[in-house]
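Reminder to self: tokens first, then the designed residues, so the page reads top to bottom the way the pipeline ran.
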């Protein structure tokens, strides 16, 4: 089992930045791929970024050039640095982990989820 806890969400003005953290406990975090997703009411959970165990990263189009995913295996923590935030980035952000070798984009491919953290971007 892997337990994930997100933090770092909050209210920020458009153009601002936030760094989300995802603290993992349980099995060896370094062996897992980690993803970040977001969800707004009435919509499906949307892929934002993922990082493989070897550090390879993948981004949704909206996240490229603005978001950076990273991980610190020594601290069992993953991060999502979000810059140049826009009101349409407002959502609950979730981190997820999977034992798969790849870093998938579909929520169904992930085995473990955090509780989510709210990000609100004001215009």
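Designed residues (123 positions):
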């Amino acid at each position: 089992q892997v337990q994930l806890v997100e933090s770092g969400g909050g209210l920020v003005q458009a153009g601002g930045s936030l760094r989300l953290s995802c603290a993992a406990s349980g099995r060896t975090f370094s062996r897992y791929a980690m993803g970040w997703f977001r969800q707004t009411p009435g919509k499906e959970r949307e892929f934002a970024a993922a990082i493989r165990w070897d550090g390879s990263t993948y981004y949704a189009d909206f996240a490229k050039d603005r978001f950076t995913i990273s991980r610190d295996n020594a601290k069992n923590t993953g991060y999502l640095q979000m810059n140049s935030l826009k009101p349409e980035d407002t959502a609950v952000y979730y981190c997820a982990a999977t034992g798969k070798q790849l870093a998938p984009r579909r929520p169904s491919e992930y085995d473990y989820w955090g509780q989510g953290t709210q990000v609100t971007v004001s215009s």
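The two ends are 40 Å apart (CA to CA).
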